[in-house]
Amino acid sequence: MPIAPAELLEDLVAANRILAQEGILDAYGHVSVRSPRDPRRFLMSRSLAPSLVTAADVMEHGEDSEPAGDTRKPYLERFIHGEIYRQRPDVMAVVHSHSDSVIPFGITRSALRPVYHMASFLWSGVPVYDIRASTPENDLLICDPRLGQELAQRLGACACVLMRGHGMTVVGDGLPEAVFRAVYTERNAKLQGLASQLGGPIEFLSDAEGRRATVSNRGTVERPWELWKKQALGRAWGA
Asked: What is the mean pLDDT of residues 119-128?
């Protein structure tokens, strides 16, 4: 029995390639989706540069974040995904990246906040996880269940959590939304950084604007997803 429908595997491959194409992932970083067969499990590629991922590289991981009956090398930070899925039943897809513009907000006191409507989902807050709080001697990697649990707890009910000196992790109700949020978190960080260099205070979105724009944008996520998927896979979506 296949680990997932062919369409979902194609979407997971597309998500990897889109995020590489948009500069959110490079040789590092990863994206996963909750298994449609068992919500305690998730699907993610073997340890591989995202732009090289194919359907044959996808492995099913159990609730302990270990590959299920697959001996290929997994990503070291698979526990990010497994522990978020364990704590957040509403989350269906997870992206972890080291995108450049986000890094400064995890190492300074400047909070990442939504500056335009495309990143309105950031209205609920963007917490920062500092691994040193529990593990002073570390390599910054989330490479065991305990650290994954801590990160998931720091994420809480938010859409995005930053990781000091490391990057970000975003979640969504499916691959299209998780990819959308990863792309626009990076773009918001870049715009906020640019705005901070200009005179005067930044006019961030209000909480009410953030909530309303998030609802509106959720109804249009398939538009960029269709475009990005076509560009990433080199053919029409659904063909």
From this structure: 97
Written out in words, the top-level CATH class of the domain with range 6-233 is alpha beta
pTM exceeds cut of 0.85: yes
Q: Is residue 66 flagged as an active site residue?
A: no
Q: How far apart are CA 100 and CA 145, in angstroms?
A: 26
pLDDT class for 237, splitting at 50, 70, 90? very low
Mean pLDDT to the nearest integer, 137-143: 97
Residue 71 pLDDT greater than 90, yes or no: yes
Three-state secondary structure readout of 151-209 = HHHHHCCCCEEEECCCEEEEEECCHHHHHHHHHHHHHHHHHHHHHCCCCCCCCCCCHHH
Residue 239: count of CB within 10 angstroms of its CB: 6
- For 203-227, what is the mean pLDDT? 97
Q: pLDDT-derived band of residue 199, with 50, 70 and 90 as boundaries? A: confident
* DSSP structure string for 104-115: HHHHSS------
CA separation for the pair 120, 162 (Å, rounded): 16
By three-state DSSP, how is residue 56 classified? helix
Instruction: Give the burial class of 127: count Cβ atoms within 10 A of its Cβ; 0-12 exposed, 13-18 middle, 19 or more buried.
Output: middle
Between CA 178 and CA 172 the distance in angstroms is 4
Catalytic option among 22, 77, 83, 177: 77
Structure tokens at 224: 């960029």
